[in-house]
Amino acid sequence: MKKWEVPNRHKPFAKNVVCLLGTTSSGKSALVNHFFKTGVKKVAVFQLDTHFTIIETVPEAEFRRIVGQQHYQPRAMDDATLDAPVEDHFSDSRRNVVYAVLDTASTIARHEQFENFSSVFRKHELINAVLINERYLRGSEQDKRRMRNTIFIDSPGFTAESDLVKLKGNLEVLQYLYTLADLTLFCIPSDSINLVSSQVAMLELSILYAVHGENHFTKALDALLSAPENNGGGGLFSFGISDLFNVISRKLRSVSDEQPTAYDGSVYWDKVKFVLTKIDRCNSACKCGQVRPEAQYFELGTMLGKNLRFLKAPVFDQCFAVALPEQQLQLYRQQEQERRGDRGRDRAGDRGGDNGGKGEEEEMYRRTADGEYVPHRLVTGDLSRLIEAVGALNFYDSFVVRLDAAIQLMCEELRAKIKGSWSYAALLARSHMQLVNTIHANSCRRSRARPSQ
To answer: How far separated are the first and last CA of the chain, in Å rounded?
Structure first.
């Protein structure tokens, strides 16, 4: 059976996997920090990461073993220390206490699912891991359970390449992450929705790559690469990026074995959620205390309808508009420091006037017991619904259920590979086919016998 070996791309993780995609400064790292209630990722308005990061929690005993007993010195830390975003991993006092960072080799050794791309990952050091010590988890028991059962894959901000070779490499990685993940969150800054149209096209092609299979998609890309007009005279470079996606989509349709009359609906998007981030910046002028992102949803729907070439648009329930309280507080503090520096006088001297002794700032902000002014109301939008959507993965298939599903999918691929070989036609591989059928039947029997969860 060794010669029928297929790539290990279906073995599930022991935890639920959430993949974060999006442009630079779309709030991916900030969302990771909020979910785990600990600052383990750098947050900035420009690109910091050039690699994929696996973030998960580990028990304290495992954490101690990973960092080494001599380096592990646990100590009490207040909420402000744990909440602070990372400025520099190398000088952060929380490293090897609250969290640990693994290099590319250690990350691949920890998760064999990445072995398919290990040569690419190792060559360019494209992947690392952040392990969070469960000793420092905070929140309710439900929050902690959600954190323990979830792995985040944070991606660098990706762009659409017009170079077909680079495009193919990007698509291979993106479709593989889509296949591995139980849920993919595509983060879009709400104040620049129309600037991500090319990334939406990349996401669409990645889903088509994963759903229609490597065979069909590779044929389409190889046919485009070998086309005469792309090899002599620079025809490839005359394509705009949208035109390039249209060509690939048409070629994919021509090589697909599926019936063109089949109705797909929005099933392709079942594993994808569109997340409009920083929604507070688009609603800051509203003093009614409510977030009303209808304009952003309309802009998102218009952009998706205009740029999706092959798939139908997702439904409303697959879209979220969120804002993170940590980012709002940090932004306010920065603005307050600038205002104090510009005014050069005490805040209290600036208030008063036409509003019964209360200025605009006093209406919008309140003073804490420490004397700090913070916003009266932090805008979060659909943040709680998004966190619940991630936590809901725990109520669906368990690892055992997903493992049997992976076995059945593997058997289907093996059947196709064996049937397409000359040895099967020559009746030399019938015993191998029988063994695969037995494995598939046993897995299906376990699935039927398992009580519904």
So the answer is: 34
